[in-house]
Amino acid sequence: MYKLILTVRYLFSKWIAVFSVLSVWLCVAMVLIVFSVMDGFLDNIKQHSRGLLSDIIIDNDTLQGFPYYEEFGEFLKDRMPGEIAVVSPVIYSYGILREPVTNFTKPVRIVAIDFDSYRAVNDFSDSLYYNRYYPGTTSLTQTQVPVAGIDGYDRPILPPSHELAYQQYLKDRDESNETSEDFSEPGFRSPHGIGWFKQRFNTPRMDGEPLPGIIMGTDVIYSKDKEGFYRRFLERGCEIILTVLPLTHRGTIAENPIPVAMRNVDDSRTKVYEIDKICVYVDFKLFQRFLSMGSLERVDGTFTPPRASQLLVRLTDDQGYKAAQPRIEELWVEFRESLLDRLTLSDAELIEGVSVETWETRQQDFIQAVEKEKVLVTILFAIISLVAIVLIGVVFYMIVIQKTRDIGIIKSLGATSAGVATIFLMYGAVIGVIGGVLGVLTGSFVVANINELQALLARLNPNLQVWSPEVYTFDRIPSAVKPGVMVSVFCMAVATSIFGAIVPAMKAAWVWPVETLRYE
Amino acid sequence: MVLARVSKLHKSYALGRTKVSVLRGVNLEVREGEMLAVTGASGCGKSTLLHILGALDKPDQGTVSLAGEDLFAASTWRRDTIRNRDVGFVFQFYHLLPEFNVLENVLMPRMVGTSTWGWMSARREAKAKAAEILELVGLQDRLKHRPNELSGGERQRVAIARAIVNEPRFLLADEPTGNLDAKMGKGIMECLHGLNEKGQTIVIVTHDQQIAALADRQVRLVDGKIES
Ligand SMILES: Nc1ncnc2c1ncn2[C@@H]1O[C@H](COP(=O)(O)OP(=O)(O)OP(=O)(O)O)[C@@H](O)[C@H]1O
Ligand SMILES: [Mg+2]
């Protein structure tokens, strides 16, 4: 009983307790913030890697791609019935983007996708900006520009297809109660745009010549200023010339560069800066032809097999990618053997280089680098926390020295050594708990508002802008605290405080009473 | 009947390289119910002897038995219990806990000896008992005062109250009047006398011959031994 009473009495009678709480508080907040940001960063990378690729990736890492991808897709579905959800071929190439009005040019990475299967194989469609507000209106085939008009009551209105889609979006949004929006709505429905439309058009319509659609990475379309706000470059619906370089299966240039007139239909915001700043998405079949990767007639009247750069596979079982990878690899070997007698030499070379990987191994280097960084930072902060432990130890040591006479008195009254030690351990625990709770609260608050705080700092002094999307891949600092991390950091704080109290408490407790009574 | 028996007690302190022998074979018996005064020159080892008697310090050699039980052969845990139950100690410098008021200081031995759950039920009775004892030493209107708000004599009486609250068999007082003027010292001695008359065994250490004369019996510590 006396233990509790003494603990409480000491806590309330000594300023030094406030300092101990303060040091625990700051340490906990600091560790929580650093760890959460690193951890969130890693999670972001993992999540995005998978969301942007697929469970299994099959490719040979060349620009000319590999043949018989379609046959292999069928083969897979045939041999692993029910396990393969979607197979989607992709072609990667490079091109020059030009906007004919302003002559704005930019080198881009062309991702030729089969829109429907690609959307099913990964989270690509979640990244589409306009498709979010006008679901189903984004298409890579021939499209015109939707132009807003006004209805009989002077209200803004879109062409029927878009208006319906928008109403659908509103309905879905209300049903799902989704309030947090990553981006503001597209501008051409906002009152701001109406005056302009009102003067020129009375009825909404689809305008312009039908052109194949192109989806562009958001940082291709816009450039961001220092504060992270987008500056508009290319309007939705504007015409784009994409010049591509066709390659033969041996990798030589097949013909002159081909300029393709296209229409900007959507804006892909994966939030991965490396991707958003360079990728444009176009129709697979169309660009397979332009890049001369389609089926071509040989001199002898036979046809070359079409090629793709990559085959993405999504499994029905989300967790099964690790187990499925070796099986698919085996099936690939089997498939390759069955082709042997049909292959030309150069095709055989392309086929030979094909590997089967999971999204995880594909991103391994990067993920491992970040994981190492996380360990490194955690170790650094563990060392800093060590300083905190020493600090707390010193503070407790001072308290114990101050209270040495009291310890002798209490022991002379019959208190056990363990009882006396308990007083100081409880003291440490209470300080750890108070400091830990405060630290977890502050840390969580800072992490939750870290982007706003960063913006605030950057406004005060631009040099304080520490997060740059170019360096850290993502456009925002990850800002989520996991409950598990909270709990473990908190427990660590309490354990640390108790540990800091142990040594002086032991020292004071395990002596004969007179030895401590001699302090006058 | 002999309550405490000290035999061949040796104690020395290491001062740097030299060893200072303070007690060199002390033999002493304390009878039940008596008031024994231990006198001697300053620095002759009176306090050391008393501390060992109260199990607050350990001897180098020799034994102390309290009611037949060897104090230093007992387990640590047992010794803690003996300090709590069987021995009351009054220090020369009071040694009260500054964060606690008079009543709480007196209650401390009670609290130390009771478990948290036991305390819930024992609290009321313990408080009444402590108040009663404080009345006995004449401090009934000082219950809520902190030690630093009391005079030296009052502090010493609180220390006595604390020493006897658990009704120990053995009350040890180390120069209880040493820091007090003659009048206050007399008050303290009256207080101890009153206790002794009720059957309390008391060992009192003093270098004041007048005080020692008030005891039933006197022994003198000379050269680390009891002079007979
Ligand atoms: N912890 C210690 N370390 C070294 N020497 C000590 C220690 N405790 C006591 N002494 C020495 O032992 C001797 C006896 O001390 P003690 O306190 O028992 O004397 P005393 O008889 O009570 O004196 P006084 O009448 O002044 O209180 C003294 O010389 C003292 O210096
Ligand atoms: Mg002394």
Question: What keywords describe this structure?
Answer:
A: 520 residues, alpha+beta, 2 domains, two-stranded antiparallel sheet, elongated, B: alpha/beta, Rossmann fold, six-stranded mixed sheet, four-stranded antiparallel sheet, binds adenosine-5'-triphosphate, binds magnesium ion
In brief:
With 520 residues, chain A is an alpha+beta fold. Helices cover 52% and strands 18% of the residues of chain A. The longest helix of chain A is centred in the last third of the chain and has 39 residues, at 364-402.
User: If strands are numbered along the chain, what order do they take across the biggest sheet of chain B?
Assistant: 6-7-8-3-9-10
Q: What is the overall silhouette of chain A? A: elongated
Task: Tell me the structural class of chain A.
Answer: alpha+beta
Which hetero ligands occur in this complex? adenosine-5'-triphosphate, magnesium ion
Supply the number of structural domains of chain A.
2
Q: What portion of residues of chain A belong to β-strands?
A: 15-25%
Distance between the termini of chain B: 20 Å
The share of residues in helices of chain A is 40-55%
Reported for the largest beta sheet of chain B, the result is: 6 strands, mixed
Radius of gyration of chain B: 18 Å
End-to-end Cα distance of chain A: 27 Å
Q: Give the integer mean of the pLDDT values of chain B.
A: 90
Structural class of chain B: alpha/beta
Widest β-sheet, arrangement of strands of chain A: 3-4-13-8-12-11
Interface with most residues: A-B, 27 and 34 residues
